[in-house]
Design a protein that fits this description.
- A hairpin with a 7-residue loop joins strand 8 (94-96) and strand 9 (104-106).
- The chain has one domain: Nucleic acid-binding proteins (OB fold (Dihydrolipoamide Acetyltransferase, E2P)), CATH 2.40.50.
- The strands form 3 sheets. A 5-stranded antiparallel beta sheet has the order 3-2-1-4-7. Strands 5-6 form a two-stranded antiparallel ribbon.
- It is 8% helix and 35% strand.
- The longest helix is centred in the first third of the chain and has 5 residues, at 15-19.
- It starts with 14 loop residues before the first helix and ends in a 14-residue tail after the last strand.
- With 120 residues, the chain is mainly β.
- 21% of the residues are buried.
């Protein structure tokens, strides 16, 4: 019998709200843990037409060297935000496995795709 994680849904959004999201595949070219922050990873990500710095709370789940070359979906049009003085120019998409942020799995395409490909 499978266990079902019951979580309260966040507020509903309209289809128009969803369409505002620009989700693209990026290829991680560099990764390093942020000094003084147990959870933060700083990555350089290739989106084909440009490279961006992304800061994400995945350092406790992934080693920097294990991220190099991985392709993952990123929210591309998210307003930049600073974490520990480092600007993040997007957000990586991941699965919260246990529902309590104690385990995280990155999403990725099942075959190599062109960096910058849009998720539809």
């Amino acid at each position: 019998m499978q266990s079902v994680i019951k979580r309260k849904a966040k507020g509903m959004i309209t289809f128009a709200d969803f369409q505002k999201m620009d989700i693209r595949i990026g290829k991680i070219t560099e990764a390093e843990k942020v000094q003084g922050a147990d959870k933060l990873m700083k990555m350089q990500v290739d989106f084909g037409t440009e490279k961006r710095q992304i800061v994400a709370g995945i350092a406790e789940f992934y080693a920097p060297e294990g991220l190099i070359g991985k392709q993952c979906p990123f929210v591309f049009n998210l307003e930049p935000k600073k974490f520990r003085g480092l600007e993040s120019q997007g957000m990586i998409m991941a699965i919260d496995v246990g529902g309590d942020r104690s385990d995280c799995v990155l999403l990725h395409p099942n075959k190599e795709v062109k960096p910058g490909a849009k998720v539809v």
